[in-house]
């Protein structure tokens, strides 16, 4: 992907706002995700029809791949929206890098959440990990409450998207 410095700066700014919003309040507004998605498709379309088609396929692939985690409560709706909205910027060629880097970042954030949570919350996290490994819905909601700290997965997707685009340039 070849984007102008202004487009790339806008991409980085929107990702930073989304990550900060997710970290602060576990909410990612459509006012962030819609311009992010439209901008990514526009940048790819500027490269030609193949770029636009690739952007749309990337959106569909990420949306489909993350649908199951979202539908089982393993991922929030804003996190899903951000992951899908960043996909056109990443493009098909860097999707594996995007998702892998996002997963590593989410793992790091999960470790921080585990350390920041209290004993009962750590037991809940263990129960959720066992449920996820068995392919069952989470037994305890993955929300912050009491001494439980949730993972801002949107921030992980923002890191993954930025890394994938920077490494893919």
From TrEMBL:
Pfam family, one: Peptidase_A24
A GO CC annotation given for this chain: membrane
Keyword Repressor: no
Keyword terms, alphabetized: Membrane, Transmembrane, Transmembrane helix
Transmembrane feature ranges: 41-68, 149-168
Gene Ontology MF terms in the entry: aspartic-type endopeptidase activity
The organism's place on the tree of life at top rank: Bacteria
Designated name of the protein: Peptidase A24A, prepilin type IV
Domain Prepilin type IV endopeptidase peptidase: 12-109
